[in-house]
Amino acid sequence: MKNKNVLKFMESCPSSDDFLPDAMKIPFRTIQPRFFSGLFDDPLMLIPIRPLGRSLLVDCGQIHHLAKRVVKSLDAIFITHAHMDHFMGIDTVIRMVHVSPKTLELFGPEGLAGKLEHKLKGYNWNLAEDHWCSFRVREVHPEKIRTYFLSGPEGFSCRFEHEKPRQDRTIYRNRYLRMEAEICDHRIPVLIFRITENSTFLIDEEKVAGMNLVRGPWLKRLKKMFYAEELAEKPIAVPVRKEEGEEERTFPDAGVLYDRIRKERTPGSLGYVTDVGFSEENAKKLISLMHGVTVLACECAYLKEGLEKARSSFHLCTDDLNFLSRRIRPRYLLPMHLSKNYLSCSERLFEELNPPSGVTILRPEDYATPRPLLPCELPDFGDMLP
Ligand SMILES: [Zn+2]
Questions:
Q1: What is the pTM of this model?
Q2: What's the 318 CA to ligand 1 centre distance in angstroms?
Q3: Which of 44, 344, 358, 374 has the largest CB neighbor count within 10 A?
């Protein structure tokens, strides 16, 4: 019931689909990303995973407008880097979850555990109780992942847990997706992320008919084996249609059988890039990780005229994004994190973006959330008199 409420709330929030005409809905099966920062607010991407009723969060900028029940649905937070506009919302997260009995995972570049520890040390925790939440921080280094634990019941003291070598780019996975990361240069290490949905069990009816297989309970068995990752080299008995009736045939490898009857479908994926300098090395990493991604949410802090500022602050400008989109070829491109210098003229960003054919630009509002209040919009004490 609780999960249903969270899902209902999420349904009512703007998603990247809302920027598109009805005919072009984005083909995600299990994730439903919500971009909460518009063009100008500090970045924040919520990624609800529908079958779980749980969410992931990428970056932690302007988060205070997220409902507490949504923040409490977070399983993990992925921080690109600890510049203030990407990390300051972590205080709001801490406020909303600290008395919940769970462990929240944080992923980020080297040094993140120390930064979280310092934030937590800025408060008094003398009332900490045994059921309070804890944080596990996984710092992503080029060759390894270092893990730290900050225990709520112990007043959020930070202790080193372990260090493991990185096998590949994957830093997190669950039953429905995997998260990959690469380290880029922003004069400090900054992580870029790609979330890819896991393949789902899909059968091509024409292929089944073409092999004369008779539908039956074996398909359910095959599906169960698929999700349990037990297909390889496991035999499976299947009824096969013959001229004189049906005959049961045992296929020695259910994985091979599934490959012959599966429906081809590219899993949905979402790239998130912000605050990377436009260097050859960054561009190489970015293109390699993001190639062919379904939706690329990418920082574009400056227009063409701001090229020098982009270079000196290690950010991207419109020309850089045009270059990258020609090489990455996402199906959808969501520009974000535009400098507030362009507050009155954000349409110029979309005039300068020129992606290749086949790439559709998503156009978020300047702000996704209501503006802050002015004192004159609130009652004064006199208005509160009985
Ligand atoms: Zn930054």
A1: 0.87
A2: 17
A3: 44
Å from CA of 277 to ligand 1 middle: 10
Residue 94 CA to ligand 1 center (angstroms) comes to 22
Do 193 and 95 share a structural domain?
Answer: yes
Residue 324 domain flag: yes
Same domain, 92 and 241: no
Neighbours of ion ligand 1 (CB under 5 A): 83, 275
- Ligand 1 mean position to 91 CA, how many Å? 18
**Consecutive 10-residue averages of pLDDT for the chain (386 residues):** 54 54 68 92 94 96 91 97 97 95 96 97 92 97 97 95 96 96 97 95 92 93 90 92 90 94 91 96 97 96 96 96 96 95 94 95 91 90 88
What is d(CA 328, CA 324) in angstroms, rounded to the nearest whole number? 6
Residue 186 alpha carbon to ligand 1 centre in Å: 7
Same domain, 185 and 216: no
Cα-to-centroid distance, 191 and ligand 1 (Å)? 11
- Give me ligand 1 centre to Cα 83, in Å: 5
Q: Give the separation between CA 70 and CA 214, rounded to whole angstroms.
A: 45
Angle at 34 between CA 353 and CA 267, to 5 degrees: 80
Strands (E), the chain: 34-35, 45-49, 54-58, 74-78, 103-109, 134-140, 144-151, 157-165, 170-173, 177-185, 189-197, 236-242, 245-251, 269-273, 295-299, 332-336, 360-361
Q: How far apart are the CA of 81 and the centre of ligand 1, in A?
A: 7
Say which residues have a Cβ less than 8 Å from residue 23's Cβ, sequence separation at least 6.
Answer: none
52, 155: one domain: yes
